[in-house]
Amino acid sequence: MKHSDTIVIGSGLAGLMAAYTSVRQGKTVTLLTTGSGSLSLNSGVIDVLGFDGNHEFVASPKEGIKSLPEDHPYKKIGMDMLEKAVDEFLAFTKEYGFPYHGSLEKQIMVPTAVGTMKPTCLAPQSLDGAAFEGKSKVVIVGISGLKDFYGDIIQENIRPLLGENLSYEVVMVDAGLEGGRDVTTLDAARWLDQDKGMAALVNALKPHASGNAVFLLPQILGTSGESVAIALREKLGAEVIETTCLPPSVNGLRLQKMFHQALMKLGVDIIEDTKVLRAVTKGSKCTAVVAQAAAREKTYEADKFILATGGFYSGGITMREFEKPREMIFDLPVWFVPGEENWSNEQLFSDKPQGFAKTGIRTDESLRPVDDSGKVVFDNVYVIGRNLGGYDFCFEHSGNGVALASAYKAVMM
Amino acid sequence: MSVCYKLFVYFKEHKYYGKQKLSGKGEWMMEKATVVVIGGGATGVGILRDLAMRGVDVLLVEKCDLVNGASSRYHGLLHSGGRYAVKDQEAARECIIENQILRKIGKSCVEATGGMFVRLDIDDPDYEPQWVKGCADSGIKAEPITLEQAFRLEPLLSKHVVSAYLVPDAAIDGFRMSWQNVESAKRYGGRFKTYREVVDVLQQNGEIQGVTVRNTITGEIEEIACDILVNAAGGWAGKVAALAGLEVGVQPDKGTLLAFNQRITSHVVNRLHKSSDGDIFVPHGSITILGTSSMSIPDPEDTSTSREEVENLLSIGEKTFENLRDYRMLRAFAGSRPLYMPPGGASGRGASRGFAIVDHGKDDGLKGMMTIVGGKFTTYRLMAEKISNQICEKLNVKEPCRTAEEPLVPEVAENDKKEARKYFPAYGTDLAATRLGPERFSRVVEDLKSHPEKRELVCECENVTLAEVEEIAKELSSFQINDIRRRTRIGMGTCQANFCALRSAAVFAKCGRDKGAKDSLGQMKQFLQGRWKGIRPVLVGRTLREIEMTRALYELSFHVDGGKKA
User: Fold this and answer.
1) Is B80-87+107-170+253-336 assigned to CATH 1.10.10.10?
2) Do A109 and B509 count as a contact with CB atoms less than 8 A apart?
3) Mind listing the pLDDT tens digit for each residue in B86-132?
């Protein structure tokens, strides 16, 4: 039977950050994961807090967090831990060659696939809308046959945001990817990973390049790191910037790849394709978890367990019948908003948070699960990321920030 | 107060229009038709087709898109009549006759699933012989089968089934059937206008002069002159009649349904008991619809559904299929049946599912106005035939009705389909052929052939190509993505528009004729909001998962709400 200091369950952003932080603290870490995590669906930019409870834009996440309600995960995590988590993450991305930048003081505006600008806190340079500043020409670059990138609507919607004093054009580039199955951003990114792809793109865009131009591209600037973005910027002598996109999210995958490289290097035992079924407990302690491997069940012991299995999307929390939510491994008490009228808002895109989205586990200040009376359920189980209750990550634009900060804190406890 | 009535009052008060203008300077070129039909549901389009085929100059007006009311908000069951065999044998007989006719004229709209009636151990055993006799008396073939056969045909059936029969029920696509009626009518010169709400009925000296309609998108008012006005507004028929100062007893009766993301049954499965809520399952393509409830409501616009209604349907439905709750619900939806209430009649399930034609010339002294109410989708053609006969008599048109013989749309040539299979996703060809009809289909195939990039799927769930979406987006009757949805089925499958909302908004912005099409963010939001309405009441289980993704993509990653804010 295998014993580790820490077991992390789940390999989304929260799980990966927890495993990384933990191994850096000198712990032996086992990461158990069913699938490949949700980063291929995640923009991979770190939103900390974009909008407050009244849906007002938050100019400084650090300030905005102060006005959040007491039961919000950030309030349990605390500003100190959030700041340290941000520092740890920025240092990690720098060390492993795909640096993010930004700070808790202000927002970075990221262009989206529909031509809006989305606030985030930390992002790689290739997604930072600051590139538009002081420029006079926006060249929107489409790739022939690439699905889910529509230059025309981006142009139409981004114009009022950036201003009419800039000029706009849409340029289509033939990457020779057509003729087979649907072409995704990942296909185009792989094309640009190769020298001949890069050369072809530079050739096609060069005539439109000038020092005061910005090229706005789908998320295709390489499958890892920022080398493709840097090379293209140099060769064109102009700014290049990517949009967020429909899945697969190339940027989410870049971040995932970098985490995997770090975890492998640092000796984290990553066990994939294994579904944790239940916990073995003794009093208020968890001693092990039992997981389903290919042929049989396997038991993993540890001193500390970090739960990062996600919410409704990833199946960490389910609700087969109304008002009966379940956490699937430890059977932890799951908090939810009762009453049909509070469960969801009439508008999908609403001016207030959606009740159902706040479903999750409540914790003490150390991020250990608590029951309705506030009593800690397990002394050595910590809950992070989307498993946490009390916040609507879509409404607030806060998901990845909560993931990073809660992961960091759980490790430090 | 309904929107319709509020507008009516508003325009009356502001003298925005009226007979003064109509008879005043006479400078307007007024649109004219011999017959104007109000209501673009199955009955309305059936009348449009019937009259057009007999050479009558006919125009249909609809306040929304076609097939937006009860003609699509039902379970899509082509009744064998078995459901009415005990209570209402006249309706049962009409059903079985029309069932055979619709299979013949609307081949591509009917999925010949067959139907099964099952009695559970909790159901009244005395009802069974009555039902068997009722079927025999109504001419419906009800073939008893053994339980072993029943479980082989429907393996998920509850083991509490004690007897089973096969009947000639089928699934029918209300959207497609109705649009094919319109296509057929157009070939004979029939016209239609959508998003035109009737706000006044024009009459002079006890005779119909025409109607005033408001364009619900632009707000423009126009008048249409006619000799005969047909009120086929379904649940709204009472309101339309009121505009003419008349009273028609129509009780909107709300039926709520659930759509599941799987094909739970392969037959239409009915409970063999006295008709009740939640006792019919109808398989359609890759989904199953469970319905319905029956609730009298004051306003036919009320298509809201609640968790309570969903729970009711589930708890009854799981008697027939015990594992029902393990299937993902796609959405809940509701429509209002236009139940006809003759003075002193019964309501709800007690009310007749039969139909009635009111000649207001005879009954109320308003010459040229008629109302048709009641009935059900299965008998829409018969209803259209009956009222069209009366209209033709008034107009002295001798042409007989031919709607029961002539197919709705010519069949798509096998050669075209063969060609199409080279470009279409394998099983998408026949679906697209039936959705599009021969002319559009051959245009789409040509487009796919010459523009390989248009083979891309806009909607993977329902296999809809870019070429097909463009073809429909270009039509003058497409004002919103939802209008394209009803024609192509985009956004109606597993992902409930998660992926096609962006794509269709982009296509519509490029190809749409209406200027509103350019507002891609607004269109996208409106489209997703339409899906949300049906998802909210079933926001549980795996539906939660799907909506987390919708929000993460559109609210978080695309920030569609943020065009102006940040």
Assistant:
1) no
2) no
3) 999 999 999 999 999 999 999 989 999 999 999 999 999 999 999 99
- Minimum Cα–Cα distance from A400: chain B residue: B556
Contacts with A112 from chain B: Cβ below 8 Å:
557-559
Query: Distance between CA atoms of B517 and B510, rounded to whole angstroms?
Result: 8
Please give the span between the terminal C-alpha atoms of chain A, in angstroms, as a whole number.
25
- CATH architecture classification, A2-101+254-412: 3-Layer(bba) Sandwich (3.50)
* Tokens read off for A57: 């834009």
pTM of the shown model: 0.90
**Which residues from A are below 8 Å from B503, CB to CB?**
147-148, 150
Residue of A nearest to B452 (CA): A179
Q: Which residues pair with B250 in a beta bridge?
A: B340
Shortest CA gap A25–chain B (Å): 32
Query: E strands of B322-445, at which residues?
Result: 329-340, 355-359, 369-374
Listed in order, strand segments (DSSP E) in A46-166 are 100-101, 108-111, 117-120, 123-124, 137-143
- Interface ipTM: 0.96
Residue B93 burial (CB count, 10 A): 17
Contact residues, chain A, for B555 at CB < 8 Å: 349, 394-395
How do strand A213-217 and strand A137-143 relate by DSSP bridges? parallel
Q: How confident is the model at residue B251 (pLDDT cuts 50, 70, 90)?
A: confident
On whether the CB atoms of residues B117 and B158 are closer than 8 A, the answer is no
Give CA torsion, residues A265, A269, A272, A277, to 10 deg. -150
Q: Would you state the pLDDT for residue B350?
A: 62
| Domain residue ranges in chain A | 2-101+254-412, 113-243
Does the beta-carbon distance from A397 to B505 stay under 8 Å?
no
Give the pLDDT confidence of B386-413 residue by residue, as tens digits. Answer: 999 999 999 999 999 999 999 998 888 8
Class (C level, CATH) for A113-243: alpha beta
Residue A28 phi, psi dihedral angles, 5° rounding: -85, 130
Find, in chain A, the residue whose alpha carbon is nearest to that of B537: A340
Q: Flag if B548 and A179 touch (Cβ within 8 Å).
A: no
Q: Are the beta carbons of A357 and B562 separated by less than 8 Å?
A: no
Determine the residue of chain B that is closest to A319 in CA distance: B541
Residue type for position A192: L
Each of the 413 residues of chain A gets a pLDDT tens digit; together they read 789 999 999 999 999 999 999 999 999 999 999 988 889 999 999 999 999 988 999 999 999 999 999 999 999 999 999 999 999 999 999 999 999 999 999 999 999 999 999 999 999 999 999 999 999 999 999 999 898 999 999 999 999 999 999 999 999 999 988 877 789 999 999 999 999 999 999 999 999 998 899 999 999 999 999 999 999 999 999 999 999 999 999 999 999 999 999 999 999 999 999 999 999 999 999 999 999 987 899 999 999 999 999 999 999 999 999 999 999 999 999 999 999 999 999 999 999 999 999 999 999 999 999 999 999 999 999 999 999 999 999 999 999 999 999 999 999 99
Measured from the Cβ of residue B209, the count of other Cβ atoms closer than 10 Å reads 19
Q: Which of B549, B509, B546, B516 is nearest to A114 (CA)?
A: B509
| Inter-chain CB proximity A116 and B307 less than 8 Å | no
Collapsed DSSP state (helix, strand, coil) of residue B383: helix
Cβ contact, residue pair B520, A311, below 8 Å: no
Give the distance from residue A3's alpha carbon to the nearest chain B alpha carbon, in angstroms.
34
Cα A119 to its chain centre, rounded Å, is: 14
Contact B336, B297 (CB under 8 A): yes
Q: How many other CB atoms sit within 10 Å of the CB of residue A341?
A: 12
**Architecture of domain B3-69+175-249+354-395 in CATH?**
3-Layer(bba) Sandwich (3.50)
Residue of A178, A249, A319 with shortest CB distance to B541: A319
Q: Is A248 on the interface with B (CB under 8 A)?
A: no
